[in-house]
Amino acid sequence: QVQLVESGGGLVQPGGSLRLSCAASGFTFSSFIMSWYRQAPGKERELVAAITSAGDIMNHADSVKGRFTVSRDNAKNTVYLQMTSLKPEDTAVYYCHAVRMGYGYPLYWGQGTQVTVSS
């Protein structure tokens, strides 16, 4: 059974930091591109950051460059999103996404974790 379980979300003040984790199971994690997406109320889901199966960072959205960093630990089947200098506009549900590298399928989504940036 495939599972992507996000954790680490919560309420943080502007300028604060959070680290999101996504624990994967049920598939060969090291063969998948892992990504973080987010969706704010009333907005479309957008890609935040992606990392290849080997750990090469594919991209970060312009809005988070210099503030967010994606990483992964293939030994732990976990992908991370370190978020610093958080802004109210970073408030969203953050989703973990997996897609098999070189194939484009299968792809999996986590259930999401809420991040709220507010004073």
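The above is record 1. Record 2 follows with the same two-line structure.
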Amino acid sequence: QVQLVESGGGLVQAGGSLRLSCTASGNIERINRMGWFRQPPGKQRELVAAITSAGSTNYADSVKGRFTISKNNTKYSVYLQMNSLKPEDTAVYYCRSGPGPTLWYNSWGQGTQVTVSS
């Protein structure tokens, strides 16, 4: 099983920036993809960005050009640089890992709260 720990959330004004971090531990040798999801208040959890072990990335349309996902294979860590934040980016952000390009493990981190004030 994979354990995930997120950090870096907080309160920021619209237009500001935050950087989220996530580190995986446990059964990490089968991880081939890591990503960030978010769950706004009263809404379903959604994929924000993902990155494969080869470095391929994909983003939700709502964050393209503002968010950047990156990784550190040595530490099995993934980061999310969030710029030009908007109030609608307010959510709990979760890290997730998976063994392949279309699969995710069921385990989630505890999440980190991001609040963007207008």
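The chain has a mean pLDDT of 94.
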